[in-house]
Design goal:
By secondary structure, this protein is of the alpha/beta class. It has seven helices and ten strands.
């Protein structure tokens, strides 16, 4: 059996508060295989965003380890962790966080150029992704000229621009109406499954969750099957 692309092993995370330490994760375990899409469904305040931040190497666990491609990330330098995020992990958030002064094409090209891709190749990849998400003809539009669904599609395309092996999404369609959410999510599934990406998607939408390969939840700081 091949090594999972992402593995969280007994991950712990605690935050300090006026009342003392607040444990959020208490030994969470999770594996993600190539081409697998896992839904993370849990009430607000249970640690979903914290889990995604640890999985994406944005935070370090207080215990346990995060393995990316079979390699532990706990002892890596900040520069090495940044390098992994830039080339291996894609992020999608509920609110698109597009750069308002740049066009749709530029928003997708810039992360690639930051990773060393030439402007020409980055623009070509941006065009390819915009077409895949039904946004041909919108390349030169800035975010303010795009609908909410179009902005989120650009954000998903941006997350996939560097061909990540792992995609982490935090309520990626939570800010969209039902019809738009369904279309955007269908495009996300097609892109992820078509390229063998391992994806962890936090969602409150049970209909979207059922379209994924399996569902997990957080209970008492641990991950369990839903």
């Amino acid at each position: 059996m091949s090594e999972p692309l992402l593995r969280l092993a007994a991950v712990e995370r605690r935050y300090k508060s006026e009342a003392g330490e607040l444990p959020v994760l208490r030994g969470a375990d999770l594996t993600l295989a190539a081409g697998e899409i896992v839904a993370l469904v849990a009430p607000s305040g249970t640690g979903k965003s914290t889990l995604l931040h640890l999985a994406g190497l944005l935070e370090k666990p207080d215990g346990g380890e995060v393995f990316v491609g079979g390699k532990g990330a706990g002892t890596l330098s900040d520069d090495a962790r940044t390098g992994i995020r830039r080339t291996t992990i894609g992020f999608v958030y509920q609110f698109h966080h597009l750069l308002p002064e740049f066009t749709a094409e530029e928003n997708i090209a810039l992360p690639q150029m930051a990773a060393g891709v030439s402007r020409r190749d980055a623009n070509a990849r941006a065009h390819e992704l915009l077409a895949a998400f039904g946004l041909t003809g919108r390349e030169t539009h800035r975010p303010g000229k795009l609908s909410g669904g179009e902005q989120q599609r650009v954000a998903i395309a941006r997350a996939l621009a560097n061909r990540p092996r792992i995609l982490l999404a935090d309520e990626p369609t939570g800010n969209l109406d039902v019809g738009t959410s369904d279309r955007v999510f269908a495009e996300l599934l097609e892109q992820v499954r078509g390229h063998g990406v391992a994806a962890l998607v936090a969602t409150h939408n049970p209909d979207l969750a059922r379209r994924m390969d399996r569902i997990v939840t957080l209970q008492d700081g641990r991950i369990i099957p839903a």
